[in-house]
Each structure stands twice: as C-alpha cells, then as structure tokens.
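Following up on my earlier thread - several people asked me to post the actual chain instead of describing it. Fair enough. Here it is, all 150 residues.
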Amino acid sequence: MTNLAKQRRIAATILKVGEGRVWIDPEATDDVAEAITREDIRGLIEEGVIKKKPKRGVSRGRARIRAMKRALGRRRGYGSRKGTKNARMKRKRQWIIRIRALRRRLKELRAEGVIDKSTYRRLYTRAKGGDIRSVARLEGLIRHEEGEIE
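Reply from S.P.:
Thanks for posting it. Predicted structure:
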C-alpha cells in the first residue's frame, strides 16, 4: 500500500474539506501516487478518482422513535417532567378544552331529546361556573336527576 498522505492533504486543500473527507479510488492508487503537483491532483478530481465524501449529519432516527413513543403516551412520567403542571398546559387552555367538550355534549343531549331546554340552560350555566368538571360528571348528574341516559 503506497503512502498517499501528501496527495490526500493537497486534495483536501483543493476541495476545501478535511483530510478525512477525501475519498481516493482504491483501484487507482498508482495514478494518485504519481500525482505530485496540485495540477495533477486537480486532474484526478475532474476524472473522479479523488472525490469529496458527503458531510455526516446527526441522525434523527432516535428522535423520531422517541416522538412516536410520546404520541402513544410513553416517556411522560414524573421523571421526564421539567415544568409545573401549569407550565406544561396553561389553566386557561385546560379550561377551554373542558368547557368546549361539556358544551358540545350538552348540545348533543338537547338535540337527542334526553334533556329539555330548561335542564340544558341550568346545566350550561353550572358548566360555565366551573361546577361540572368533566363530561362523565355531567352525564352522572343527568342520570341522577332524570333517570338512565341512553
């Protein structure tokens, strides 16, 4: 095996990369060994005997796997949390999600005829006041007041 350190160094300066990113064709080592000037090296680069290796990046594969696990609800335990409960999801955002769900369910129940207008209005105002904390609680209340829900 011939020593091509000088040729590699010259090629690196011409290609404007580090020596580690210079690829020399193993079949043409004799031609490269004969190249002693910059002009010779430039010729070999044009021929494709010497090439610039692509830049190595950081793989996103592990990050994608982690994101998929998080989407399934994994990796979200106490040890992974940094912010407070309120920092992770603001109270206002929690309220918006909850009230929208309650109002949607109330409208469905009114449309189905499970509750009448007056019951709807009473429950709507209770939801607005923060008295009903979830859809399950709402349905429990209706069951308790008017008998079994469909």
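DSSP finds eight helices and two strands in the chain. That should answer part of your original question.
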